[in-house]
Amino acid sequence: MMKKAFTHCNIFTLDEQGTQYENGCIIVNDGTIEYVGEYHDAFVQACDEQIDWTGKWVMPGLVNSHVHIVMNVLRGAAEDLSLHRWLNEKIWPLESKFTDEIAEVSAQAALIEMIKSGTTTFNDMYNPIGLDCTRLYETVKQAGLRGYFSYTLFTPPDGSSEADTLARARDVANYIRRDNSLVSTMIAPHSPYACSTGLLQKSAELAAELGLRLHIHVSETEHEVDLIRSQHGLTPVQYLREIGFFQAPAVFAHGVVLDEQDKEILRETNTTIAHNPVSNLKLGSGIADVAALLEEGIHVGIATDSVASNNNLDMFEELRIAALLQKGTHRNPELIPVDTILRMATHQGAKGLGLAKTGMLKPGFAADFITIHPAGKIHLTPSNHALSHLVYATNGRDVEDNVVNGQFLMKDKQLLTLDEERVSQTLNRLYAEHLQ
């Protein structure tokens, strides 16, 4: 790959020291950041390509720690319902009608939305049963984002053997691992309420065997906690420990309803919570006590969940609401300052997914970054307090460039890897033909 220099920009590295450069330069070589600092003409002239980003703000790309990309076709299809009614009355019946084409185009719609709004890394859990996962993975890979695409395991509702779903999970995981692309995979049992004890145990064993992480919904609602407690006499987190689930590093989506013992288990097992504030609010699930989780040393990333419960994939909106909720619920404006929430949505989120060299602008890290140009944007004026604006004033529509692994996925607001018009038209047609 060519050596590229991105020049004359305002750089927010989001490193441990909060380093910023007003007339900065980023030099990228073979998908990795080689230099970040003040502009030096000699450094730049040695590069094969020079991109002038005068006046633009540059920051690490956003990391969406939990999302369901094939659900983009269901935006607005299930409103004003609690989680379990939402799943059982709307989402799962609609997903049973999915075709491979619906899943493929819906995923492309989500990938477009993430690219345009500043996400560079995502952690997906793939849902509909019986579709071609490897075909869908190939589609996902072509978008150019970094992330995880994982087959979701359920205990079959028809009472058939769980061996088939485990075998399928193994096959999909091995297919993706062999490909060695920017998109990797995890082992993803859906939840304690949708998987038997045996399936949860075997999922954990498979993750440990393959050296993969686990991705699962846990303690999303009081209903879920009450259900698992009635069945097993334990909270979901305690139940998972009891059955030996913590055999591999895990990402727990939600973690809304947790007691002190749950938190201690999460801390001891170094489990990551993927915090989905908008989805949790919209489904009436509650508000995760993120401030307490952070205080107790528990790792927390930020996530959107799907557009069926959000209804967008705008991580800027998500991180803003995440910060505001903690300040409001605790009546403490000092909680979750701007640098903390930005790191949760970038490097901290990436670390929780096992990507320790992603989400920060410093030498040796992945060349994944985005730009915002404040010029002419009244909501970003005056531009003196840029970090504050990135949290409390910016939205995904402000993103101008999206670079992953040193390659443009969007340049000056022009998508380069996917056809938005075709995807939009096709998705509308497929919804009308199959789901209306």
UniProtKB/TrEMBL annotation:
| Domain annotation Amidohydrolase-related: ranges | 57-407
The Swiss-Prot or TrEMBL record lists the needed cofactor(s) as: Zn(2+)
In this chain, Zn(2+) is annotated as bound at 66, 68, 217, 305
The protein's Enzyme Commission number: 3.5.4.28, 3.5.4.31
The terms under GO molecular function for this entry are:
5'-methylthioadenosine deaminase activity; metal ion binding; S-adenosylhomocysteine deaminase activity
Residues bound to substrate are 95, 190, 220, 305
Give the catalysed reaction(s), semicolon-separated: S-adenosyl-L-homocysteine + H2O + H(+) = S-inosyl-L-homocysteine + NH4(+); S-methyl-5'-thioadenosine + H2O + H(+) = S-methyl-5'-thioinosine + NH4(+)
Return the Pfam families for the record: Amidohydro_1
Give UniProt keywords alphabetically.
Hydrolase, Metal-binding, Zinc
Give the note describing cofactor binding and stoichiometry: Binds 1 zinc ion per subunit.
Q: What does this protein do?
A: Catalyzes the deamination of 5-methylthioadenosine and S-adenosyl-L-homocysteine into 5-methylthioinosine and S-inosyl-L-homocysteine, respectively. Is also able to deaminate adenosine.
Family per similarity comment: Belongs to the metallo-dependent hydrolases superfamily. MTA/SAH deaminase family.
Q: What is this protein called?
A: 5-methylthioadenosine/S-adenosylhomocysteine deaminase
Species of provenance: Laceyella tengchongensis
